[in-house]
Every structure is written in C-alpha cells, then in structure tokens.
Amino acid sequence: MSLRRKATGTDQVVGFGLVTVSLIIFAYYTAWVILLPFIDSQHVIHKYFLPRAYAIIIPLAAGLLLLLFVGKS
Questions:
Q1: Residue 41 burial by Cβ neighbours in a 10 Å radius (0-12, 13-18, 19+)
Q2: pLDDT tens digits, 20-61
Q3: For 10, 46, 56, 64, which has the most beta carbons within 10 A of its beta carbon?
Q4: For this UniProt entry, which segments traverse the membrane (predicted)?
Q5: Residue 2 lies in a domain
Q6: Would you say residue 3 lies in a domain?
Q7: CA-to-CA distance for 58 and 66, rounded, in angstroms?
Q8: Residue 10 to residue 38: CA distance in whole angstroms
Q9: Cβ–Cβ < 8 Å for 36, 48
Q10: What's the CA gap between 8 and 30, in Å, rounded?
Q11: Residue 48: strand, helix, or coil
C-alpha cells in the first residue's frame, strides 16, 4: 500500500508560484551583486536596486533568522 498522494491543482499552483518567486529573487540578486558593479553609477538602472550594503545585510539576517527558528524546533 502506497502512502504517496497525488498533487492537487492547488498544490501545483502554489509550487509553481514558489518556483517563480524564487527565480525572480535569484535573477534580481544576481543582477544586483554581479552585474550592477560594472554599470556606470550614474546610469538610470541603479535607482531600481537597493544600496550595495544591503546585498550582504539581507542574506545574513535571513540566515540568522533561519538558524534561530530551526534551532527552536
């Protein structure tokens, strides 16, 4: 007897949404950290990104929160 269940339509939509959001965040962060330093600082594209200090602060804060919540369980 198998305990596997088939994914419902809602499960698939939520999964697709999570993958889409993850890809958007990955593309934004990659452009922010890898490509933006090579573009002139006066270029208009810089107004769509946070200051570069946040490129380190945000992942550190997220990692710290993850460790705190995983450690509690």
A1: exposed
A2: 999 999 999 999 999 999 999 899 999 999 998 999 999 999
A3: 46
A4: 12-39, 51-70
A5: no
A6: no
A7: 12
A8: 42
A9: no
A10: 33
A11: helix
* Cβ–Cβ under 8 Å, residues 49 and 35: no
8-22 mean pLDDT: 93
Domain span including residue 20:
9-72
Q: Determine whether 55 is exposed, middle or buried from the number of CB atoms within 10 Å of its CB (0-12, 13-18, 19+).
A: middle
Residue with tokens 């006066």: 42
Look up tokens 């499960």; give the residue: 11
Identify the residue whose tokens are 């965040």: 25
- Greater confidence (52 vs 73) lies with 52
Using CA atoms, how far apart are residues 7 and 59, in angstroms rounded to an integer? 32
Residue owning tokens 């933006």: 36
Q: What is the spatial distance between Cα 11 and Cα 17, in angstroms, rounded to a whole number?
A: 10
**Domains: count for the chain:** 1
